[in-house]
Fold this protein.
Amino acid sequence: MLPPKKILVILSLSVFVGVLIWLFTNPSKASTPINSSIAKHKKIGKTDCQDCHIAVIKQKNMHPVAEDCSGCHTYTESNEAAEVKLVNSIPGLCFTCHTDKQEDFEKKKFKHVAAESDCTVCHSPHSSDEPAILKDKTNQLCFMCHSDKQDEIEHKSFAHAPIKDVGCSTCHNPHAADYSPLLKLKVNELCLSCHGLSAGNKPNQAFLTVNNHSQIPEKYSDKAKKIFLDGDGLGHPYFKHPVGGVPDPSQPGAMITCLSCHNPHAGKTVQMYKGDLGKQALCDKCHK
């Protein structure tokens, strides 16, 4: 009789060989990444793709090119098998139409890694119930990777209204930007889009467009606290206090901005002070 250790080795090898045989004889069971240029397909002859794949185009917002599958896919048959291919790999395929996004990735200083490598991380290539054929609501997509921000926004007492009510893309460009971290404008310009004295809707304007195509609801910015700055950009939170253009004493090597004192996402107080500090403790960081 064989020793127990040899029996265990033989059984392990048998299982391993069995798995290999199953994979080679059942290729359709293995998932094929969307960036793969070739996918196996059962032979169907000439037919309408929607006869089988109707589910991928049934959502509210349909990708216009999805009306003709041949715009992105090719289907070929031989005596042995059938194959479905993408006419190009992603994101090159998407850039065939979305040349503006390709230009952004090529020219902007900061790129969103997830978007640059595979558009289908966030977008459905066929249809969706969300705008821009997103796979989920904007914030939920962002939280897939940025779970730390989700924890802040959902568990702190006060969440920044534009994020909670409109979405992360109010301030961030989801593709590429010239300002880190993928901000649509410089920090203070971005904040003053809502908090500046001149920010607000014009009469009979349903949406206010700010930050390069971000739209916020009617009278939304009217609810934001407005701050007064003099001609030198001084005056918040007190007379002649700088909000930019000088070094930040609390962060060596950095310049002072709105983010020197405020968390742009959420906080324990309505002012969303950085580090969840009280007002005096925050001032003491610089004015010791």
